[in-house]
Write a structure and sequence with these properties.
Length: 199
C-alpha cells in the first residue's frame, strides 16, 4: 500500500485523504519537509492557489516541493493544485509562484467567479466508465500544453466544450475539477496506479 501525502497548508485536504483511502492508499497530511520526504506520492488539493503559495513560502516548503517534484515524486493537483503544478500561469496575483513540473500554461479563475461554479461532463483518455460529472469551482483551465505534457481530459458538452481540464506529464497529473468531492474515485485510482508504477 503506497503512502500518499496531501499537502495540508490550505484547501480540501480531508476530501482528498478520504478519496485516496477509498482508492487503496494510505493518506497522510504533509506540512513539513520531513513529512514530504516520507511519502510515495503527493496530492495538492483544491483551495486557493495564492494562499497556498504564500503558506508554502512561510512554511519553507516551496523549495522542497520543487526539488522533490523535479526529482520524480508523483503528484496530483486538483484545481488550485493544478495551478501549483503548472510551469506557467496567467491571471495570477503579483509575484505568484508555483511548484511547477507540468509543461503547461494554466489560466486562473478562467471559468468565472465563485458564483459561476458548475458541473459539466468531462471525458478523460484512458479512464473507463463514461464521462465524469465534473464539478468546477472558480476553476482554472489549461490554455496550452507544451511538448512534454499531454492533454488528457476535455469538457465534452456545452459552451465550454473542448476546454482542456486534465493533463498528465509522466508521474504528474492535474485536473481543473474536483473528483474528491463527488465520490467518483476513478481519478484517485489512476493516481494510485501511477504511484505504484502501473499506469
Ligand atoms: N480559484 C482558485 C485559485 O486560484 C482555485 C479554486 C479551487 O481550487 N476550487 O487557486
Amino acid at each position: 500500500t503506497p503512502t500518499i501525502g496531501v499537502l495540508a497548508l490550505q484547501g480540501d485536504v480531508r476530501e482528498h485523504a478520504r478519496a485516496l483511502e477509498r482508492a487503496g492508499a494510505r493518506a497522510v497530511g504533509v506540512r513539513r519537509p520531513e513529512e514530504l520526504d516520507a511519502v510515495d506520492g503527493l496530492v495538492i488539493p483544491g483551495g486557493e492557489s495564492t494562499t497556498m503559495w504564500k503558506l508554502a513560502v512561510a512554511f519553507e516548503m516551496l523549495e522542497p516541493l520543487r526539488k522533490r517534484v523535479a526529482a520524480g515524486l508523483p503528484a496530483y493537483g486538483s484545481c488550485a493544485g493544478m495551478i501549483m503544478l503548472a510551469d506557467r500561469i496567467e491571471d495570477g496575483v503579483q509575484g505568484q509562484e508555483t511548484v511547477g513540473g507540468i509543461d503547461m500554461t494554466v489560466r486562473r479563475n478562467a471559468f468565472g467567479r465563485q458564483v459561476d461554479s458548475f458541473e459539466a461532463p468531462v471525458t478523460v483518455d484512458g479512464v473507463d466508465g463514461g464521462p465524469f460529472e465534473a464539478v468546477f469551482i472558480r476553476a482554472p483551465w489549461v490554455e496550452s500544453v507544451g511538448a512534454s505534457a499531454r492533454a488528457l481530459g476535455h469538457v465534452s458538452q456545452g459552451d465550454r466544450a473542448g476546454r482542456i481540464v486534465a493533463v498528465r506529464q509522466g508521474g504528474l497529473l492535474a485536473t481543473s475539477f474536483h473528483p474528491e468531492i463527488t465520490g467518483d474515485a476513478r481519478i484517485h485510482r489512476l493516481f494510485v496506479d501511477m504511484v505504484k508504477g502501473n499506469a
